[in-house]
């Protein structure tokens, strides 16, 4: 075996690989020409500088695995790797403790005004009276996101005697109880927290989640810490809240632009700024190096895949056949997660038709990834293990008999605190994912783009009113699908469902008008992807 370490790693990382006496390990300082070095290589380890694109992989016909010593894989073309049969691995969670410790450190610094105390002392001033702070003990600590890092933060915050509240729709109540966290809605989290920390991935739902509207719902004097992603915060809105004193302080390690230029936080005394260093500890860097070395070694020796970010081993023909159903399953999951939000207790999947005989692990994981909606940490490889980690029950069923009038059907049921919802879907023309039914109502609709789901009484005039309102708000309808519940002749009106695919965005005013239609009982906005992965 030949492993190329294309970037500098710790001695401990190298030592893991050198336990294999017959392996050739080429370190970064020995690599003069990377494509040439990869010509007969089995494994490649990178950090963030090397661009492992399709052209580089083309120079490595024997390459079986690319290991990223870190989390982000923006510098690796995972799609190209999949097509070439190369497993791409990263090391999520290896820096969780480092991030958690900085989060707590920033909280203490905010509460006790440590940066100001330090700067005034260096200036020869003794401003003891103006530096009175507050204790963490007894404060409500709101944690948005209870993945590995969020839970590590919670465990440490308990030692300070804080009251923990958290929001994460994909963590079970059992996991929350084990960590003394009270699960609340995101609205209650924002409303009740004295300190708020962010530990979620970047998704359409979390982008800009801290904005003028949500800040206005928070307590006067709240303090906010962000060591996750800069794009979670509308920076101008937070800066205004800091200037007005509504937000007492903020500590930010990440920014929408890095390094930040002309940041609205520059010059604000109640803001602590650090240059994206949460995971930058000697221990964390060594941990990610050791972890990726072990993963690469286990895969090349035993075929064990850990923390892969692309697809497991499939023949080209199998992948071509199953790929459209992976897309279908992921979009069904994304659809239902937005249709019925809340903490997920269980996920049920059914495969019908020829799919029942196929390798459905990737279809299952695609559905889970869609439900969990955490693209930075949940993917088609690790999705099932994430459900186990988060205490979410998973059940699968396979039957060769078809359902919904189609040859191959995927059935997905989502159980949350709010209830349960079931959808059936299929693939048309080999590439087009379609919804076949929702909660027992047959309806054929495309699973792509922006969708409005509208439940209403099955009475005259509703469809026309919906079209009129969307037209008044300059919303173009791309597709309008209708379905009706079964009813007997004695009923004067049953229930109906519309799934409306639209072009562009829908304003809050348009949604309010739709919800104001007398016969309409529910309106939901769902955003899906447009292309296959």
Automatic annotation (TrEMBL):
One of its GO terms (biological process) is L-serine biosynthetic process. The keyword Amino-acid biosynthesis applies. Residues 451-528 form the ACT domain. Pfam families: 2-Hacid_dh, 2-Hacid_dh_C, ACT, PGDH_inter. The keyword NADP does not apply. Its EC number is 1.1.1.95. It is an enzyme of class 1 (oxidoreductase). GO terms for molecular function: NAD binding; phosphoglycerate dehydrogenase activity. It catalyses: (R)-2-hydroxyglutarate + NAD(+) = 2-oxoglutarate + NADH + H(+); (2R)-3-phosphoglycerate + NAD(+) = 3-phosphooxypyruvate + NADH + H(+). Keywords: Amino-acid biosynthesis, NAD, Oxidoreductase, Serine biosynthesis. Pathway: Amino-acid biosynthesis; L-serine biosynthesis; L-serine from 3-phospho-D-glycerate: step 1/3. Belongs to the D-isomer specific 2-hydroxyacid dehydrogenase family. Catalyzes the reversible oxidation of 3-phospho-D-glycerate to 3-phosphonooxypyruvate, the first step of the phosphorylated L-serine biosynthesis pathway. Also catalyzes the reversible oxidation of 2-hydroxyglutarate to 2-oxoglutarate. This is D-3-phosphoglycerate dehydrogenase. It comes from Paracidobacterium acidisoli.
């Amino acid at each position: 075996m030949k492993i190329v370490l294309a970037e500098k790693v710790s001695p401990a990382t190298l030592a893991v690989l050198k336990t294999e006496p017959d392996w050739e390990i080429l370190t970064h300082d020995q690599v003069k020409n990377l494509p040439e070095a990869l010509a007969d290589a089995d494994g490649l380890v990178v950090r963030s500088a090397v661009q492992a694109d399709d052209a580089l992989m083309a120079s490595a016909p024997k390459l079986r695995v690319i290991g990223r010593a870190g989390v982000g894989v923006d510098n690796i073309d995972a799609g190209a790797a999949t097509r070439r049969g190369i497993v791409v691995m990263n090391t999520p969670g290896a820096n969780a403790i480092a991030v958690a410790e900085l989060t707590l450190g920033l909280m203490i610094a905010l509460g006790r005004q440590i940066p100001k105390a330090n700067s005034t002392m260096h200036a020869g001033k003794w401003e003891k009276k103006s530096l009175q702070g507050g204790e963490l003990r007894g404060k409500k600590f709101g944690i948005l996101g209870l993945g590995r890092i969020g839970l590590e933060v919670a465990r440490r915050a308990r030692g300070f005697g804080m009251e923990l509240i958290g929001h994460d729709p994909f963590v079970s109540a059992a996991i929350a109880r084990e960590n003394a966290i009270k699960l609340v809605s995101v609205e209650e989290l924002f409303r009740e927290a004295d300190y708020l920390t962010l530990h979620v991935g970047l998704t359409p739902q979390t982008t800009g989640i801290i904005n003028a509207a949500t800040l206005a719902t928070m307590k006067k004097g709240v303090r906010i810490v962000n060591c996750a992603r800069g794009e979670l915060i509308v920076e101008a809105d937070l800066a205004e809240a800091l200037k007005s004193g509504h937000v007492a302080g903020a500590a930010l390690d990440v920014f929408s632009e890095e390094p930040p230029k002309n940041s609205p936080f520059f010059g604000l005394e109640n803001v602590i700024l650090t240059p994206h260093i949460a995971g930058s500890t000697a221990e964390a860097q060594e941990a990610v190096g050791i972890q990726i070395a072990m993963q690469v070694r286990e895969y090349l020796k035993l075929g064990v895949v850990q923390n892969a970010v692309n697809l497991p081993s499939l023949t080209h023909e199998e992948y071509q056949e199953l790929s459209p159903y992976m897309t279908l399953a992921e979009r069904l999951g994304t659809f239902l997660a937005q249709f019925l939000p809340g903490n997920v207790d269980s996920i049920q999947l059914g495969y019908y038709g020829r799919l029942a005989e196929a390798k459905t692990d990737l279809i299952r994981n695609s559905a889970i990834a869609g439900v969990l909606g955490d693209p930075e940490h949940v993917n088609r490889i690790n999705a099932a293990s994430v459900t186990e980690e988060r205490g979410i029950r998973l059940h699968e069923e396979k039957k060769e008999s078809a359902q919904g009038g189609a040859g191959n059907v995927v059935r997905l049921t989502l159980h949350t605190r709010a209830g349960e919802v079931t959808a059936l879907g299929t693939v048309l023309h080999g590439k087009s994912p379609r919804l076949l039914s929702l909660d027992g109502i047959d309806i054929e609709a495309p699973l792509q783009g922006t969708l409005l789901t509208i439940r209403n009484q099955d009475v005259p005039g509703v469809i026309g009113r919906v079209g009129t309102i969307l037209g008044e708000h300059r919303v173009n309808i791309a597709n309008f699908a209708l379905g009706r519940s079964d009813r007997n002749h004695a009923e004067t009106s049953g229930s109906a469902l519309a799934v409306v695919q639209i072009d562009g965005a829908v304003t809050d005013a348009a949604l309010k008008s739709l919800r104001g239609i007398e016969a309409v009982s529910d309106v939901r906005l769902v955003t899906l992807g447009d292309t296959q992965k």
